[in-house]
Each structure stands twice: as C-alpha cells, then as structure tokens.
Design a protein that fits this description.
- By secondary structure, this protein is an alpha+beta fold.
- It has 2 domains: about 70 residues, no CATH class; about 60 residues, no CATH class.
- The protein is built from 4 helices and 8 strands, in the order E-E-H-E-E-E-E-E-H-H-H-E.
- The strands form 4 sheets. A two-stranded antiparallel sheet has the order 1-2.
- Helix 2 packs across helix 4.
- The longest helix has 19 residues.
- One of its GO terms (biological process) is cell adhesion involved in heart morphogenesis.
C-alpha cells in the first residue's frame, strides 16, 4: 500500500499511520494492478467485509476489479450483545502475556504489513482473554439522562 519503486513517500507514510492508528483492517491482499496492491478496501472491523475477490479488469482499465460483500444490518438486533468491560481488564496479566512472546523471532523476515497484522492479532487475542464481557439486554435502552422524574416548576408572582 502506497509503495512505489520501493520508496515510501511522506503522504503515503501519513496515510499508513492513519490506517494503523485507526485500527483499520485492509481486506485486499492480492495484487490489483500488475504485481502491486494499489486498490484497497478498509473497515473498522474485519466482520464488516466478506468474500473479497480480485477479478479481471473492466474494459480498458489496467486495474483489476474488486468484488466484496459489505455486511450491514437492516434492523436492530434484539439478541443479547456482549461488550467488553474495559475498566475491569487485567492489564498487568496482559503485559506479562505479551512480554513472554519472542517478538524478534515472531516478526523476523516479515513485511511491515505482516508485522502489523501479527501484532493486531495478538492484541485482539489478549483482549479476549483478559477483558471480561458485559452482557447487555435485549436491545432496550434505559434512559440515562433522566434518573429522577421531572418536577413541575412553579413560579409565584
């Protein structure tokens, strides 16, 4: 992504940093023009994009087509949803777990993208392991803005 003749330009590096800092997932993993990945599909969660296929160019284009499915929900899911209790995470255990990984060996001879994907995968795994889930109800929201009933204000003149 953003690599031309082996050089990473300033704007490309800024874009790459933005993608990584935003924890976006790149779904196009095959070349889309010649031997280079020039066309990308990004999402905030891997589950949002599915079935990515690189197809032949359309018409006179020198870029391959990218076909993919975007998963969206048309109506609200009323099932119990699980969310992370971030404030209850066992962060000391996380650090110890990550410190046991031989990062030099794990990331040796890998590209920057491969290193990022490995790191992101390990972090996701650690969060799943050390941050408990909070079960939420069946889609009903409670009113967090009004905890007490409104009182009728009376003004005397």
């Amino acid at each position: 992504m953003g690599i031309y003749s082996g050089h990473l330009y300033r704007d490309d590096q800024e874009f790459l940093n933005l993608v990584q800092d935003s924890f976006l997932s790149q779904h196009v993993l095959e070349a889309t023009r010649g031997e280079t990945v020039l066309d990308i599909v990004l999402s905030s969660q891997k589950e949002f994009v599915d079935n990515v296929k690189i197809c032949e160019p359309l018409g006179c284009s020198d870029h391959n087509q990218i076909h993919f499915i975007i998963k969206v929900k048309g109506e609200r899911n009323r099932k119990i949803r699980n969310r992370k209790k971030i404030h209850k995470g066992r962060y000391k255990d996380m650090m110890e777990y990550l410190a046991k990984i031989d990062w030099n060996k794990t990331l040796k001879n890998k590209t920057a993208t491969e290193c990022w994907n490995i790191l992101k995968s390990e972090i996701d795994c650690v969060v799943d392991k050390f941050v408990p889930l909070k079960k939420q109800g069946n889609g009903q929201r409670r009113n967090t803005y009004r905890r007490k009933p409104l009182e009728k204000s009376s003004t005397s003149k």
